[in-house]
Amino acid sequence: MTDKQRVGLIGIGLMGHGIGKNILKNGYALTVLAHTNRKPVESLIGLGASEASSAKELAEDSDVVILCVTGSPEVENTLYRDGGLMEGIHNGMVVVDCSTAEPDSTLKVAADIQSKGGRYVDAPMTRTPKEAETGNLGLMTGGDETTIAEIRPILDCFSDTIIHAGGVGSAHKLKLINNFLALGTAALVSEAIAAAAKGGVDIQALNDIVVAGGANSIMFERLMRVALDDDDSALQFYIKNAQKDLRYYTTMTQNQSSTSFIAESVHQSYILANNLGYGEKFVPRMVDFMGQINDVKVRKQ
Asked: Are residues 129 and 224 in the same domain?
């Protein structure tokens, strides 16, 4: 193990636990940060991880630090607070940011890390906690290709698809575009299901004709599981986080002066869902939200 890089991991949640588990499985020394939710932390410690008392301590003990937190505010807090990551960055260390972040914040964070002698790679994820546990996440990477090649064996521990998007910040932009496509499709599908239910169309018939034609998609099939079986497990991503990602997307399009007519409408749909109490529910529950605002039962049973 001594010839392998030492890895630090901050953010032991739905995705982070699987990432850490697979890093340990591949023989890397792993240090994790103390967390309010002890269960996943204790699980990784039981598999051989060490626990740091601060982000500074974790950085000092690591060659590569992976951030798996919610978004830019959490990333910046992890870096800049007293005892934060910036205080422990050392020459040559690599920070890999797997969060979904605002590109302007990404560029600022990367510059600050580089000013301390560190290196930065944005590496946001696709797929779900299930794939995190099995080591089959998809990653988009932004940054220096030599640095990415250096840390590639670590990334390979928990991902089977790695796409290089370009320079620093490009992967976070790509992630926002990808999420807009996915979350926009979820909103569209939810609205269509509500329209079918209100119009008296059999929900099973809607499912059967769509899956047999060009309108089908993975997202359609995930959301139909709510309408047909009251099952939202196929996409374990909170509506409040979806709202956040869509806000990041619309801010990005505004800053680069590109149109986002549809995205603004999709964003407002998620804001309303959050305001009506759906924020802590998974994205497939947009089906129930659309049923509520249209005053119609959207479930087959």
From this structure: no
Q: Do 29 and 162 reside in the same domain of the chain?
A: yes
What is the per-residue DSSP string for 212-241? TSTT--HHHHHHHHHHHH---TT---BHHH
Both 40 and 157 in one domain: the answer is yes
Which pLDDT tens digit goes with each residue over 29-45? 999 997 778 999 999 99
pTM for the model: 0.93
Q: How far apart are CA 194 and CA 269, in angstroms?
A: 14
E-only strand ranges, 2-136: 7-10, 30-33, 50-52, 64-67, 94-97, 119-122, 125-126
Residue 300 falls within a domain, yes or no? no
Instruction: Say if strands 137-142 and 125-126 run parallel, antiparallel, or are unpaired.
Output: antiparallel
Cα 140 from chain centroid (whole Å): 11
CATH number at residue 129: 3.40.50.720
The amino acid present at 66, given as its one-letter code, is I
Question: Under 8 Å CB-to-CB from 278, ≥6 apart: which residues?
Answer: 239, 285, 286, 288, 289
223 and 94 in a common domain: no
**What number of other Cβ atoms are within 10 A of residue 1's Cβ?**
8
